[in-house]
């Protein structure tokens, strides 16, 4: 399936993307952490600093980690947030590493099973590129966050950077062999399943995402950076914010209850 093609029914496409994500992570769950291999100790320390800052400004100590996967965010949040909840569309990946949180919920990000104004902080780390759209996610974040609550996302590629550096990125991905790496670990993972699960692998529209949160009544900050991709780029660029199109990673912080 062409990922850029929206068929006759958007709902049908959304279902395909959601089903692919669930099947992919249900399948890879037992070996995901070994195959993925991108969550370094240095990245963990960097994320802990970010989480401490989020907790300092949050109205309370309840954290919801969307697309929790192997629990990386919740592991880093230990001792920072009092209650850590992991949510993922894949029930099987939630069975791994239960010690990383106080509660786990198998749920779609578009339909979160939480009461209104019950969560203080939502983190979506390397999650947004798996989604077919952001409107329902923003609506749910606005609903479940308490006044003053914070939504934070990071480590999704910006579409403008991808457009500007398409050729070297394509070469990098060819060498890295993401799809073949996962299918080698789990032969039932097909190229189509992988492509649908990485629906926005060519970059998310950071400007659109920011506008959606602003429209929902959030105060939004967006910056672009390099940190956490590779030790060499960490040394060269650090976490210094860059102009859009000059760094691959989108970092968005949106605070509920303040007019933009």
What's a concise summary of this model?
This protein is of the alpha/beta class. The protein has 12 helices and 7 strands.
The helix-and-strand class reads alpha/beta
Q: How many helical stretches?
A: 12
Given this structure, which CATH class is correct? Alpha Beta
- The CATH superfamily label reads Vaccinia Virus protein VP39
The CATH level-2 architecture is identified as 3-Layer(aba) Sandwich
Adjacency order of strands in the biggest sheet: 3-2-1-4-5-7-6
**Contiguous uncertain segments of 5+ residues:** 1-9
Number of strands: 7
Question: Which fold does the CATH topology refer to?
Answer: Rossmann fold
How would you describe the shape?
globular
Mean pLDDT: 90
Q: Tags for this entry?
A:
seven-stranded mixed β-sheet, globular, alpha/beta, disordered N terminus, 260 residues, 42% helix, Rossmann fold
Task: Compile the SSE list and pairings.
Layout: H1 10-28, H2 32-36, H3 41-57, E1 62-66, H4 72-76, E2 83-88, H5 91-94, E3 103-106, E4 119-125, H6 135-144, E5 145-157, H7 159-164, H8 166-176, H9 178-185, H10 191-197, H11 206-215, E6 218-225, H12 231-237, E7 249-256
Parallel strand pairs: 1-2, 1-4, 2-3, 4-5
Antiparallel strand pairs: 5-7, 6-7
What can you see in these coordinates?
42% of the residues lie in helices and 20% in strands. It has a single domain (10-256), classed as Rossmann fold, CATH 3.40.50. Strands 3-2-1-4-5-7-6 form a seven-stranded mixed β-sheet, with helices on both faces. By secondary structure, it is an alpha/beta fold. The relative contact order is 0.15.
